[in-house]
Amino acid sequence: MRRLFLFLLIVSGTTAYGQFSSYRMAADLDSVRQNGWHHLHILPSWLAQMRGDKADVRLFSFRKNDTLETPYLVHKSEDRMRTKEIPVHTINRGISGRTLFLTLSQPSKKIINTLTFSPEAINFNCGVIIEGSDDQKNWIRLATDEPQRIFGIQNSDISYRYTTLRFTETNFRYLRLQLSDASQLGTVHVEATENTVDWAELDTLRITSTTTTESHTAHTTEMIMEFENPSSVDRLQLRFSNTGDFYRSVDVLARGDSIGGRNRNNAWWYPVSSGVVSSLEPAILRNLSVRASAIKLIIHNHNDQPLKITNAIALAERTYLAAKLEKNTRYVLTFGKKNDQAPRYDVVYFQETIPSVLPIISAGVSYSLQSANNVTTFGQNWWIWLLLIVAAVILGWMAMGLIKEK
């Protein structure tokens, strides 16, 4: 019976190590200084080597005689907008020349910081001045000195509308709107809201080089961004030196060697997303959700002057792993297993019990579990081979003993 117990103990230990070592990459967590829930920041370079659904992520704890899988949850930081609609009524409408005047009333005097316009027209380009007053005598401009703009264009190639204007919070009883070139608008409906945004936490990716070219035959501006490491990319933020109004369509492509290798001779580009950059709003391309070592932008200038890119920033929405950890216990994050099945943990059903604010725990540099030169949790690889050989010998000896006992 004692031999059987010893046999099962060694088998379970060897199986645990085999389960751990079957992953391609690992990172050791720093020392845990207190019991309880922690947040681990998953780096964009790690995300690039994980499966998109994170099914290949495991967190192992190592104790003296045991290796256990630790349950976890993954959370991705995102922009969260809360919108509160504020009832307003149009009490005056007038036209002077080509300018439309609208006066809105909100007797409740609630906070407003956003107006959304819904013109009847499809194609339009109008300047908008927004003023506020409590007595309809003294008007105060709410936005900048320059008129804001609403813009819409739709044809067989393009469909774009920019009709939401934001300004400093105000609770004026009356709002007066001046819309230039209003003859092209038709009937206009205006909605007032108070918008509050919790901005996502973002990681800025290190770009090692950028190459910009202009094609006079294709009428395009192309930029290639090379990253220091293959990384998860969620957003691109661009700045241009052009001062006039512009509206351009943009294609985003990722290099096909992004994760597997960096052989430029065999590289290819595949489409990720398409969008629009405009002088009316910040040039941010969102929702890319791509893993890449390089990104290419193609801006279609058509017959207009080429856009001059002065700055490009690649961003990843920060991803956290939440887990309940014990102090004085060693933890290792593993990932990178092609055919792994997603784990199922009970903690999914008890998320409301997890504190909203958690201490952050860091991890060291990730290393390959497949490389003969790396240090693993058990020490140098020759120790592991020795351990496995000894375990195999003992298992063989005990198996023979069990056969003889029978």
Strand content: over 45%
What is the number of helical segments per DSSP (H or I, 4+ residues)? 3
Main beta-sheet annotation: 7 strands, antiparallel
Oligomeric description of these chains: single chain
Give me the count of strands: 29
Radius of gyration computed on alpha carbons? 30 Å
- Mean of all residue-level pLDDT scores: 86
Distance between the termini: 12 Å
Q: Based on CA inertia axes, which overall geometry fits? A: elongated
Q: How many structural domains can be distinguished in the coordinates?
A: 3
Helix vs. strand class? mainly beta
Low-confidence stretches: 1-17, 372-381
Helix content: 10-25%
Quick recap:
The protein is mainly beta and 406 residues long. Helices cover 12% and strands 47% of the residues. The chain has helices spanning 2-21, 44-47, 381-405, and strands spanning 25-28, 36-42, 58-62, 67-69, 73-76, 80-86, 89-96, 99-105, 112-119, 124-133, 140-141, 148-154, 159-162, 164-170, 174-179, 188-198, 202-204, 207-215, 220-233, 235-240, 247-255, 269-278, 283-285, 290-300, 309-317, 319-325, 330-335, 360-361, 367-368.
